[in-house]
Amino acid sequence: MVMAIGIEVKMQKRMGYWLMLLMAISDICSGSTPLTDDLTKKVRTYIESTWNVLVRDTNQLDWSHSDDKLNRAQTILYVSRKENLQHVKNRVASRSKTSQQHLIIRILPESVSKIHEHGLLYLPYPYVVPGGRFNEMYGWDSYFIQLGLLESGKVELAKYMVDNLIYEIHHYGTILNANRTYYLQRSQPPLLTGMILAYYRETKDKKWLKATLPAINKFYQFWISPPHLNPETGLSRYYAQGEGPAPEESAAYYEHVLRYFKTHDIRDYDKSLYYDKNSETLTKAFYIADRTVRESGLDISNKYGPFGAAIVDYIPVDLNVFLYQMEKETAEIYTILKKPQSAALWQKRANVRAARINQYLWDKPSGFYFDYNYKTRQLRPYLFATTLYPLWAGLATKEQAQAVVKNLPRLLGKGGLLASPYKQGVQWDAPFGWAPMHYFAVEGLKRYGYHVEALDLAKRFVNTVNKGFAKAQVVFEKYDVLDESIHTAGKIHYSYTSNEVGFGWTNAVYLLFLKELSAS
Question: One of this protein's GO BP terms (predicted)?
Answer without folding.
Answer: trehalose catabolic process
